[in-house]
Amino acid sequence: MSARLPGYTPEARDERTRRELNPLEQARETAALCQEKLATDVTILDMQGVCDFTDYFVIASGRNTRQTKAVYDEVAQVLKKDHALLPRSTAGVREGDWIVADFLDVVLHLFTPETRSFYRLEELWDDVPSVEVAAV
Q1: Tens-digit pLDDT profile for residues 51-92
Q2: CA dist., res. 47 & res. 69, Å (int)
Q3: Using an 8 Å Cβ cutoff, are 107 and 60 in contact?
Q4: Any alpha helices (H) in the chain, and if so which ranges?
Q5: How many Å apart are CA 52 and CA 123, to the nearest integer?
Q6: What is the CA radius of gyration of the chain?
Q7: How far is CA 27 from CA 39, 109, 121, in A?
Q8: How many CA atoms lie within 13 A of 95 on its CB side?
Q9: pLDDT at residue 3, as a whole number
Q10: Where along the chain do its domains lie?
Q11: What superfamily in CATH does domain 23-129 come from?
């Protein structure tokens, strides 16, 4: 028999109700969280039809590696808490120049300005439509 916390029931939830997001809502939520942490040049690319492994890229810049890490931490924490979403894989979190977080339907790319201008993902995928960044 497991010990229960006082007042806990299996139906109890956090203050915010968890709800599933469709891929577009997840992309917009991710973009909005980036903007809340003052990321710049936030863009959503619709990768459906050109990419088999994800539906959307969210691309954003932080002023420096410290900010890109803070943006990633906020996105990961809120998506986990509010929507039970965890990245399947991440790369670059320690360095912070280019952080990639694969949330399956959405892949988040966080860059420092220098790294973003070097790799130019938007130019690489210039035939892909962008989606309006709007809060869900």
Answers
A1: 999 999 999 999 999 999 999 999 999 999 999 999 999 999
A2: 25
A3: no
A4: 23-36, 65-83, 113-119, 121-124
A5: 19
A6: 16
A7: 15, 12, 17
A8: 11
A9: 46
A10: 23-129
A11: Beta Polymerase, domain 2 (3.30.460.10)
